[in-house]
Amino acid sequence: MTAHSISGTTVDLEAHRRMVQPAAETSAPAAALNPVKTGRRGAHVQIDDLQHRYKGMSHNCLENINFQVESGQIIALVGRSGCGKSTLLHLIAGLMQPGAGGVYINGNRVKHTCPRWVVMFQAPSLFPWMTVAQNAALGLRFAGRTQDIPTRIPPLLSMVGLTAYADRNVQDLSGGQQQRVALARSLATEPDLLLLDEPFSALDAFTRRALQQDVRRIAKDLGLTVVLVTHDITEAAIMADRALIMAPDPGRIVKDTVLDPGADRHRDSPAFEAERARLAALFEATA
Ligand SMILES: Nc1ncnc2c1ncn2[C@@H]1O[C@H](COP(=O)(O)OP(=O)(O)OP(=O)(O)O)[C@@H](O)[C@H]1O
Ligand SMILES: [Mg+2]
What we know:
Elements: E1 3-6, E2 9-12, H1 13-18, E3 19-20, H2 35-38, E4 45-52, E5 62-69, E6 74-79, H3 85-93, E7 100-105, E8 108-109, E9 117-120, H4 132-136, H5 138-142, H6 149-159, H7 175-188, E10 193-197, H8 205-222, E11 225-230, H9 233-239, E12 242-247, E13 252-258, H10 270-286
Parallel strand pairs: 3-9, 6-11, 6-12, 9-10, 10-11
Antiparallel strand pairs: 1-2, 4-5, 4-7, 7-8, 12-13
The protein binds adenosine-5'-triphosphate (ATP) and magnesium ion.
């Protein structure tokens, strides 16, 4: 595994290949990357009787986990701290193997990580000495697809609203802008599945709101399947088509509900507020 040191921090290049980050504030449509044009579809995910226990734990961290995510669907895994959300996401990503049961993506058992699915964590993990465009192109460079950089990176930067920043150093950007760079980097390799682990929790409320809406829009434009881990009910209601509520000890899914907060998913609309309140009540009753 190759590791580089940045400002005293060890950066794992393998991890960079796998990592994604969040999205945008204002941006152009995804026409140039439209799934109809590219012929791509989001991944189908199937979780069968998944069980997991960390070494030294007296009880299962996850037990009896069964669900499917349809191609192009956005689901939120919602639950209190420690209920196993990140563990489940890491198992889906192939970052570790379950004690029992299996994860299947497009019918194939997940045994390791793959560039077809990318994990977004809280931190953007960019290379600080590179420009926005260079950072966005890293995934393609790692994949040996440098010939695709001139055609893929400009429309991606447009999609995440960063065309004007293409030649700026990423250190000059705000936290939200840096996460958009990381999202562009992840989307460049045309993943089928985005796995998001509380990717907006380090951001201020305004940026967070913009990113929630933009990541949903971009995922829908590209037909991506998304699994979002969050403990924020409003975030789940804004972003997801469906929420799975988890409870702890052992971590398990206690509710699976389709979200319909109105066509525009606008926070101020009565339809959104009603759906957010319904999800909050379900959460309080079950989690
Ligand atoms: N590497 C590990 N080794 C041992 N136990 C772990 C490890 N990672 C997580 N755990 C334990 O597994 C349980 C689930 O952890 P996990 O990180 O999946 O929870 P989470 O729902 O993501 O929590 P949070 O919302 O705080 O991020 C917790 O009890 C945690 O202490
Ligand atoms: Mg977690």
